Amino acid sequence: MVTVAKSLVVTVSVLLVIFTASVCFPIASPKSTDPTPRPWPHQFHSILFMNYSGSLQLIDLWYDWPNGRNFNIIRDQLGKELLFDLEWNNGTSFFYTLDDSTRECRTAQVDVGILRPNWLDGATYLGQQTVDGFLCDVWQKVDFIWYYEDVATKRPVHWVFYTGREAHVMTFEVGAALEDAKWQAPVYCFEKGGDDDDHVTGRNSQFHVLANENLNLRRSS
Questions:
Q1: Global pTM value
Q2: CA-CA distance, 149 to 140, in Å (whole number)?
């Protein structure tokens, strides 16, 4: 009987300690209070500074969700020729140049459209980090992309692909739209017998990097 009484006293004492600790040091539930990334505006224009293992680029990004299209106009450092990466919501992408002397075009057909405005839904929150002078909330999406958003303005500041390619957001113009005529791929992208994987030279590796990143990013959304 004495043993039972002692056990009861010990049990009550342990419960009292647990209760006191839970009051004084409540168990945190950070997941319920984690910030979520702001969805992309339905139309915007952004200039991106890209760094891929020391290879530098400037990209004019035009995002147009209402019309189901996304456009990356890419210039290499000190380069004269532009590379155009045009994506449509039906899964078609065109990668082409406009220089008559070296014109080339590749097309790709994938099973997903362009990124949805809420493509970051479900991303894992990693905390805060200062990047490019901005205090940012940071998320990771399926081991594919790390996304940094300014805490104060909720504008994107930076993102990093799994390939190591980094984007630094230089401008972000909400509501800006590119005129319809600029969205038309050149006629040689639709000609049979044109450039294919075995004949395109010069930008071969860049085509593949862009195509693979775009495909994985679109599928992750």
A1: 0.76
A2: 12
